[in-house]
Amino acid sequence: MTLKITKQIATALLVVLVSATLIGCGTVTPVPTAMPTITATIIPTKTPIPTNAPTPTIAPRPIITIEPYSNLFPQIWKLEPLSDEQRKEVINCDIEKLANSRYPKNEKSDDLIYLFEPNTSCDWAVLAFAYSERVKDDESMPDIAKNAFAQAISANPGFAFSTPLFYRFFFDAFTIVSNPPLSEQEITRVQIEYKWTGIGDPVEYTVDIRQANTNPTVVVLSYKPSSVVQNLNTKVDKELVQTLGKSLSNLLPINTQFSLMPCYDNIPDWVVTITFKDGTTLTMKTSASNMLYIGGPWQTTIDGQDYLQFSVEFIVALDALIQEIGLPYGQPAAMYCAPESVLDKAYP
Questions:
Q1: Which candidate, 321, 325, 265, 313, places its Cα nearest to that of 290?
Q2: Do 272 and 248 share a domain, yes or no?
Q3: Which of 9, 79, 118, 209 could cross-link with 123 by S-S, CB 3.0 to 4.6 Å?
Q4: Neighbours of 332 (CB within 10 A)
Q5: Is residue 158 part of a domain?
Q6: With 0-12 CB in 10 A as exposed, 13-18 as middle and 19+ as buried, what is 326?
Q7: Is 233 in the same domain as 111?
Q8: Residue 47: predicted pLDDT
């Protein structure tokens, strides 16, 4: 604390000293003067802040990762059909409702894993759906979404048939199960039957590809209209034919084959019969399903068990072959699509 001497105080002190001096000499009688009030002004001093005070630190958010799907898949052929318990778990898991409550729309993908800790297959399915919702139309499904999906279907493959996940992960699927052993053989013959109906002009044809493992030759057995056979190639690349066998991945067991028709004015019905070198035949068909524009999903039967292909590999391989031959597809005049339930058709 500092005592400040103001100008008034200094003047008063000077008058007092002069008066005292004159009185001491005995010659002057001092005239009383009014004494000013002495005011002390207190000026607080600032206490310096230590420069070496520790800066508070914020603990970083722990990094949470999901096991890569490549650690869990592909599984060795073959998968078992769903049990009643697995089917019920999928039915009772309201994926979209849970995703809306656990993962608000304004939350970014990077933050989702921190909002709710998944423990069950249903939890993982909900998280996978939340990730997929944040993927734009021109973007591929990110690995973190596939990782969450893999966690869900590793314990319960039935979640692959849940409507919210089926339509989102079908087109960006990783390999869930390896190809059936018969697909390791060479293909010796392929018969392709195609029939399209809709508002547009109908198209249908049946073609044989013979000597498929040596010198593939295309033979047209029937067609409609006549324009179908214009500018056809009767010779095709052997590798294009053999790729059909290599594309038989992701065959998931179902209780029965079915027609999945979420779209209108587009009914492509395919039956493709593949003959392997040992004489074994495999028939892939769409049952008029039109979830895929060209046709699909594709289904087949192996050793009495029905399967659905959870991917686009086969139709991509077949499309390349059809384009090589020069065969046309039916052209819808108008088309509208809305998701259709899958699980109750695959497991009625």
A1: 265
A2: yes
A3: 118
A4: 20
A5: yes
A6: middle
A7: no
A8: 57
